Amino acid sequence: MKHCSLCGGRGIILQKGVARPCSCMQELSLLKKITNSHLTNKMRNFTFDKFNFNYYSKARKDHNKFNSYYDSAVKSFNAARDFASKCVQGEKPDGLFLTGPVGSGKTYLSCCIANYILDAGKHVLFLVVPDFLDSIRATFDAAKRENYSEQHLVDEARKSPVLILDDLGAHNYTDWTKNKVYSILNYRLNNSLPTIITSNISLEDLTAFLGDRTTSRIFEMCRPFRLPVEMDIRILMRQAANKD
Question: What's the predicted TM-score (pTM) here?
Answer without folding.
Answer: 0.84
